[in-house]
User: Fold this.
Amino acid sequence: MQNLRKRASIAGLLGNIALFILKLIVGLISNSIAIISDAFNSLTDIINSVVLYISVKVGSRSADKGHPFGHYRSEPLGGFIVAILTIVLGVEITRVAVGRLITKSAPIFSILILVIVIGTILVKSALYFYTKAAYNKTKSAALFAFMIDHRNDVIVSFGALIGFTGAYFNYAFLDSLAAIFIGIWIIKSGVSIGTKNTKYLMGAAPNKSLIDKISKVILKFNEVRNIQKIKAHYVGTLLQVEAHVRVDKNMSLHKAHNIETKIRNTVQSLNEVDRAFIHLDPIIKSRPH
Assistant:
């Protein structure tokens, strides 16, 4: 899983470096604010890619004396940094685009540039689907940020394409309008990434369907009569689970210990779970414990 995270991170980083250089050259030659904005979006993507790669690398480290529960918070922390940078970029692009709309600056149309923008859309689409496949397998917060970023770049490039093509038909204002759309979309994406990663950093509870999934796993053990209480919270991108399960009060200590160990190991085998704490409650008719 960690190798898959790293491969997807490196692919995203290399793709963003190539696209930034290409789009910046194209934007400067064509004087298109939409394409220049898209280029600086790719520059932010490079910074984001480095941050996310580092967070994935740190998150893959085993638990140590200073971090006895692992380094899982590094990924959502990296994602949160990316969210802030993304919002700042979106605000700046919107500001510049509004200025260009007021001054009525127009881009220079070129078929070569048009082909390059379309090529960008194809490259980013390929990176999006590759990263999405990796995210579906790992549920990595860093790869989620990468995935959203690649998807946004496809939409952003479509906006740049519309604005740039508008210059050919003498609708120069479309370039600035497209850049404003790009800026607003980038801000929206930053907020989305930030919200998701804040949930991980704050130790939020998972959704009910995941709790139900864990409950079903526990209830498969014949010795478990029912679950008295179960709660979980995120530590980074993975869960810590605490479950109080009710068992026969006459069960021997040795058997109870074995059952607790089996339940704990089974719950911890789930991809979403890092650590499980299982408490066995004896069923006492007169006073349920």
In short: The CA atoms of residues 15 and 123 lie 8 Å apart.
